[in-house]
């Protein structure tokens, strides 16, 4: 088996049909394909305090109605389904691109999480989820006297 290294600088010079590669470059560099080929799963920050677990998802441009939070056993599923489009029947469009985006993030909750006390809010493009800890899982702190 022979391996051939691809050299992007010489691809048009070495090709039998130099314009053939240019056609594919122009098709796949179009914003129509670029917008749909990128993964749009939001980044998450997970932190812990003495009595809560905190999950923050960066999801700008959405409404709180777009989110669905489901708890299945100890797995918290956060999903979004967003459809945008122009339904104006009075215009004669030469190009009309509808947008559809959906994603799911799943988080396995620890045994110390109280699944009955989960609160969520969406403010300024950030979905914040607070998961309370069970009373027996909270850290007990006390001062120990030295004798």
Automatic annotation (TrEMBL):
PROSITE patterns: SHSP. Belongs to the small heat shock protein (HSP20) family. It comes from Mucilaginibacter myungsuensis. This is Hsp20/alpha crystallin family protein. Residues 34-147 form the SHSP domain. Pfam families: HSP20. InterPro entries: A-crystallin/Hsp20_dom (IPR002068), HSP20-like_chaperone (IPR008978), Small_HSP (IPR031107). It comes from the Bacteria.
């Amino acid at each position: 088996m022979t391996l051939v290294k691809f050299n992007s600088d010489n691809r048009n010079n070495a090709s039998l049909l130099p314009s053939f590669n240019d056609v594919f470059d122009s098709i796949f560099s179009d914003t129509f394909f670029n917008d749909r080929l990128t993964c749009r799963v939001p980044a998450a920050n997970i932190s812990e305090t003495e009595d809560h677990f905190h999950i923050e998802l960066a999801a700008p441009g959405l409404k709180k109605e777009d989110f669905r939070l489901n708890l299945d056993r100890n797995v918290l599923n956060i999903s979004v389904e967003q459809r945008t489009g122009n339904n104006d029947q009075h215009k004669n469009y030469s190009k009309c691109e509808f947008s559809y985006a959906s994603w799911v993030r799943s988080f396995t909750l620890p045994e110390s999480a109280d699944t009955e006390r989960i609160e969520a809010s969406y403010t300024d493009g950030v979905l914040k989820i607070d998961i309370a800890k069970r009373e027996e899982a909270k850290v007990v702190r006390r001062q120990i006297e030295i004798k």
